[in-house]
Amino acid sequence: MSSRDRILARVRAAVAGAPAAPTPSRDYLASHTPNDPAAVLDLLHENLADYRAIVHRADPAGVGPLVARLLAAHGSANVLAPTGLPPQWLASATPVRVPDNPQSTAAELDGVASVVTGCALAIAETGTIVLDGGPAQGRRRITLVPDHHICVVRAPEQVVASVPQAMSRLDPTRPLTWISGPSATSDIELDRVEGVHGPRTLEVILLSE
Amino acid sequence: MSGTFVGMPAFPPPDPPAFPRAARDAVRDTTLRENLRHATHTIRDKRAKAVAELADWQQLREAGKRIKDHTLRHLDQYLVQLEESVTTAGGTVHWAADADEANRIVADLIRATGETEVVKVKSMATQEIGLNEALAAEGIRAYETDLAELIVQLGDDRPSHILVPAIHRNRVEIRDIFLDRMGSWGRPAPDGLTDTPADLAEAARLHLREKFLRAKVGVSGANFMVADTGTLVVFESEGNGRMCLTLPETLISVVGIEKVIPTWQDLEVFLQTLPRSSTAERMNPYTSMWTGPADGDGPQDFHLVLLDNGRTDALADEVGRQALRCIRCSACLNVCPVYERAGGHAYGSVYPGPIGAILTPQLRGTTSEIDASLPYASSLCGACYEVCPVAIDIPEVLVHLREKVAGQGGPGHRLEKAAMKAAGWAMDHPRVMAAGERAAARTRALHPKRPPGATAWTDSRDLPAFPEKPFRDWWKKNRS
Ligand code: SF4
Question: What predicted TM-score, i.e. pTM, was given to this entire model?
Answer without folding.
Answer: 0.88
